[in-house]
Amino acid sequence: MEFLATLPNNLLVYVVVAHALFAIGLYGMLFRRSLIGFLISLELLLQGVGINIMAFGTYLVPDPMQARITTLFIIGIAAAEAAVFLGIAVAVFRNYQTIAVDKLIKLKG
Amino acid sequence: MFESFVHTVYYLSFGMILLLVIGGALLAVTARSLIYCFFGLVGSLLGVAGLYYNLGSPLLAVMQVMIYIGAVCVAIAFGLSLTRKKGEEGVKPLDIKAAIPVVLVITMLSATLKSLAGREIVASAHKIDESPIGWMLLGDYLLPFELISILLTVAVIGAITIALINRRI
What we know:
- The complex is a heterodimer.
- Chain A is an all-alpha fold.
- Chain A has four helices and no strands.
- Chain A has a single domain, classed as Helix Hairpins, CATH 1.10.287.3510.
- Chain B has two domains: 88 residues, NADH-ubiquinone/plastoquinone oxidoreductase chain 6, subunit NuoJ (Four Helix Bundle (Hemerythrin (Met), subunit A)), CATH 1.20.120; 39 residues.
- In chain B, 24% of the residues are buried.
- Chain B is mostly helical.
- Chains A and B meet through helix 2, helix 3 and helix 4 of A and helix 1, helix 2, helix 3, helix 4 and helix 5 of B.
């Protein structure tokens, strides 16, 4: 019970959760069939990175503000990336009538 | 008595946040229908906002909810409805590729824990004053801040251009 009480303020919990999110996102990127599922997995992976930076910057760095600013920039860049990815997905669907990752092989040699 | 009750509720809510993050992420990558994936993603992002709040950053929690759930998830929902097609949902069957994330993340985690062993915790998440962040964004970090706004403008205009032009890529 004593140990449980320290969990919400423990660096290790955040690190383990962030790595678990990273692994789940990577699994999704490898095994999803469609481009939208790929994008969803990519967002999860970036969440893992953000939690990691926030946890280390909060507990191990004397000035915790730097980690917050870095995470804010990561959120902004992820938003830009999602917009471009969705534009590409819509254009691909319009031209090929499919967004299945396995069928987009026109560039394959 | 009342204090212990409040503490119990706090620990329970933290456990539920962890459950929401991991459970939502698992739903997002394993569900057959992409709509369920979408809702798993929303749950996971909400849980991550809760984690940011627990790390002493209400600002980032609000930003997470506004930007991710308010903007990115709505965009994903539109993309989902514009590109829906039967037979292209679900996941591929498991094969040897599934070892890649497991091995990679176990290696990363063990390396991280090993390097953490000698480090000293210098701060606690519950005593952080976030008010300097605005001054820092308009002071030392002004250039990256402006670059982010230019990047967002260019990305949105580029996405509209790519999606609207009706010719073969």
